[in-house]
Amino acid sequence: MTLRVVGTATLTVDAPATACEPTPLLFTGTRTVRLVVAGTDRVYLRCVDFALTAQHPDLGAVALGLPGRAQSPDSVLTKDADGRLVETWLQSFALTVGDGASTLATAEPGQWTAHHTRYPPPEVTAEPDGTTSGGAVYTLAAPIRLGAPDDPGTSYGVLEDFHPRQGLSA
Predict the structure, then answer these.
(1) Which of 148, 149, 146 minimizes the C-alpha distance to 157?
(2) 47 within domain boundaries
(3) Would strands 110-116 and 124-126 be described as parallel, antiparallel, or unpaired?
(4) Measuring CA to CA, which of 9, 39, 111, 163 is 20 to 30 A from 126?
(5) Taking the complete model, does pTM exceed 0.90, yes or no?
(6) Does the residue 133 lie in any domain?
(7) Nearest-CA neighbor of 146 among 110, 104, 111?
(8) Considering only CA atoms, which of 21, 40, 29 is closest in space to residue 169?
(9) Is residue 169 part of a domain?
(10) How many domains are contained in the chain?
(11) Integer Cα distance of 115 and 101 in angstroms
């Protein structure tokens, strides 16, 4: 199932040749998941495709995609004490700037939480100015550190304040 993803995030990069001050960017794209049944109390969501893009005023195109080094961990869909669906979205990704000459990767997967009345969430709509409606809001737990793909323990950047909406793709 493919979900549309739309949201603004602040990107800061302190890497050779791609340094930038904190800049808010509007990311749009898709996340495709496959349901993996795990029991009566939870369902795992395996990310099989992830592609978001944004335009940076100084760096040009910025793309988020599945990392080449490893698969992203499965996300999980459970019920809270009130019977509402709660999704914990875990996502590893590579961040590519421009034509791919500069790539950073998540040191640890990003983690978001969303509360759903139903799953999948309804369609997301977006206006040209970046305002969105519909879908479900995913709240980022902590800033996502970005490092060199071959040494993710390094820290060359951070993606933060990224609370996108996700919902079925039209």
Answers:
(1) 146
(2) yes
(3) unpaired
(4) 111
(5) yes
(6) yes
(7) 104
(8) 29
(9) no
(10) 1
(11) 38
| Tokens 């869909």 sit on residue | 77
Q: How far is CA 10 from the centre of its chain?
A: 13
DSSP string, 10-37: EEEE-STTT-EEEEEEEEEEEEEEEEEE
DSSP sequence for 120-147: SPPPEEE-TTS-EEESEE-EESSPEEEE
Q: Is residue 86 part of a domain?
A: yes
Contact status, residue 72 vs residue 47, Cβ threshold 8 Å = yes
In this structure, what is the dihedral angle of CA atoms 17, 22, 26, 30, given to the nearest 10 degrees?
60
- Give the pair of three-digit tokens for residue 168: 């079925």
Per-residue pLDDT tens, the chain, 170 aa: give them: 999 999 999 999 887 667 788 999 999 999 999 999 888 889 999 999 999 999 999 889 999 999 876 678 999 999 999 989 999 999 999 999 987 778 899 989 999 999 999 999 999 988 877 788 999 999 999 999 999 888 867 889 999 999 999 999 86
Which DSSP state fits 57? T
Q: Provide the greatest CA pair distance for the chain.
A: 50
Looking at residue 101, the DSSP 8-state letter turns out to be T
Compute the residue count for the chain.
170
